[in-house]
Design a protein that fits this description.
Layout: E1 10-13, H1 24-30, H2 35-62, H3 66-71, H4 80-100, H5 105-130, H6 141-151, H7 154-177, H8 197-275, H9 284-314, E2 324-327, H10 328-346, E3 349-354, E4 358-361, H11 363-379, E5 386-393, E6 399-405, H12 426-431, H13 439-449, E7 453-459, E8 463-469
Parallel strand pairs: 3-5
Antiparallel strand pairs: 1-7, 2-4, 5-6, 6-8, 7-8
Helix pairs in contact: 1-8, 2-4, 2-5, 4-5, 5-7, 6-7, 6-8, 7-8, 8-9, 9-13, 10-11, 11-13
């Protein structure tokens, strides 16, 4: 004989809803990056710039030791690494200040463009001092070109590419053609004589090859980024259409359900009149049929009511309902009184241990939440069973409500599916044939609306416990003072 304690309980926690950006449809149609992603890009650029500043400072410090620079065959850099590092530090502080300020998307874009322009200008200075054509430092421009292809449109990334080409060309022209700038390089001894025609030809070839590589890289990166971005926009548009279709289906279901409610109520009322002998005494066979009609109408009326509740909860207008502080004891006692008639029919009793805590929200929503949980606890309890209801203050002053029964329980494999609409286990159907399977779907919607954490613990044949942890009243921005 296996004892009840040896049966291991299964625990399931309802996942919380993840909010979607409110402007996703507008940004998808305008082909703009979400504002959050733009802000992340600005912060990411600032963080990466600290690494560049650290490299420049280290190179400047290296120049303070002539023995090391001569060992590697390098020229003493002088103070230019410190000057450029100081300029980058000052600009980075400004950019970070505006990045952390709550600004609009247009200001974030201006910040991003300002960073790219400043980086290209300082990079041109670094390229000049290191050696524009004697080294491969010019390929550092590719970093900004590729990043602009990822974050900007093809036109904008092409603008960044032309900015890089223009600055690099100005540096080359000032150094080699106009000779406004003196020739410089990090090498103590240049690798070749710049004044010979062959050397100038090689330098010119290197310049044009560098520009050609930049353009090819821009074309490939922008093409791939545009293809990925287009796919993202298509997915966003498809999601918008699915949401619109879902809303239309919900509206249609709500209208149809409203239209069905009155006829079923009329059929139920007329069946009650027949049962009460309004049209005279009915034969036993006729009375049985009328009782079945009455029972079916009562079941359908309850299901219609649950469908209306679920449709109303899914409506965006419900989010604007006023939220007030509600005393948990009064609310739970009222909900128990609503379920008590059914509990008496089944011989189920309530054991309440209620300590007053404050719940913040719409009272009607919490009534739907608790009535459905209490109804389930009663309907799936055994005859002459007991439902335990407790309310207390949990960790961090969060209200905790526990509703537990000793009924049929839920199998471990089926526990993650109980919050789906119209889902019912075979055991539940055998035990209670009148349920619609919408009660826990209503519970799920209310829980996600108020960020309520639900923990379900169940053992097949031994009962189920729902533990609801609410947000503390002071955590709710709409909490009245």
């Amino acid at each position: 004989m296996v004892s009840d304690e040896s049966i291991q309980a299964t625990v399931y926690e309802l996942p919380r809803a993840l909010p979607l950006p409110a402007d996703i449809e507008t940004r998808a149609s305008e082909k703009l990056l979400p504002e959050e992603l733009l802000a992340q890009n600005v912060s990411w650029f600032c963080q990466l710039r600290w690494l560049v500043i650290a490299i420049l400072v280290c190179y400047g410090v290296l120049g303070l030791f002539p023995g090391l620079t001569s060992y590697f065959g390098l020229r003493l850099p002088g103070i230019w690494p410190f000057v450029i590092a100081a300029v980058l530090t000052a600009s980075n502080v400004v950019f970070m200040y505006f990045a952390r300020s709550k600004t609009s998307a247009s200001m974030t874009l201006i910040n991003l463009w300002g960073q790219i322009t400043a980086d290209l200008a300082t990079l041109t200075a670094v390229v000049y001092f290191i050696g524009s054509l004697e080294t491969n430092i010019a390929f550092a421009y590719l970093f900004h070109i590729v990043v602009s292809c990822v974050f900007f449109s093809r036109t904008q990334s092409l603008t960044v590419t032309f900015m890089a080409i223009g600055l690099f060309a100005v540096c080359i022209a000032a150094e080699y053609i106009l000779k406004i700038l003196p020739a410089t390089s990090i090498f103590a001894e240049p690798p070749f004589d710049r004044d010979t025609p062959s050397a100038l030809a090689v330098l010119a070839l290197n310049f044009f090859l560098t520009i050609a590589i930049w353009i090819v890289v821009w074309y490939l990166a922008s093409h791939l980024s545009s293809a990925v971005r287009e796919r993202d926009y298509e997915l966003a548009e498809t999601n918008r259409r699915l949401v619109a279709a879902q809303e239309e289906r919900s509206r249609h279901m709500l209208a149809t359900t409203h239209q069905l409610k009155a006829p079923f109520a009329a059929v139920y009322s007329n069946a009650q009149l027949l049962q009460q002998g309004y049209c005279g005494e009915l034969p036993d066979e006729a009375m049985q049929i009328v009782q079945r009609i009455s029972s079916r109408c009562r079941r359908l009326s309850a299901e219609i009511q649950e469908m209306l509740q679920l449709a109303n909860l899914s409506s965006t207008s419900q989010e604007s309902l006023p939220r007030t502080k509600i005393v948990s004891t009064d609310l739970l006692l009222w909900c128990i009184s609503q379920v008590d008639p059914v509990a008496r029919e089944r011989g189920v009793t309530f054991k309440a241990d209620l300590r007053p805590v404050a719940l913040v929200g719409a009272e009607d929503h919490f009534k739907m939440l608790f009535v459905n949980l209490l109804s389930n606890a009663v309907n799936y309890s055994h005859k002459n069973g007991q439902v335990d209801v407790s309310c207390r203050r949990g960790p961090e002053s969060r209200p905790v409500v526990v509703i537990a029964d000793a009924g049929i329980g839920i199998a471990a494999a089926k526990l993650p599916h109980i919050f789906k609409e119209h889902y019912r286990t075979k055991e539940a159907v055998r035990h209670n044939k009148e349920s619609s399977g919408l009660g826990l779907a209503i519970v799920k919607n209310v829980a996600q609306m108020y960020n309520i954490h639900i923990r379900v613990e169940s053992r097949a044949g031994l009962g189920t416990k729902f533990e609801l942890t609410f947000a503390a009243p002071d955590e709710n921005p709409e909490d009245p003072q």
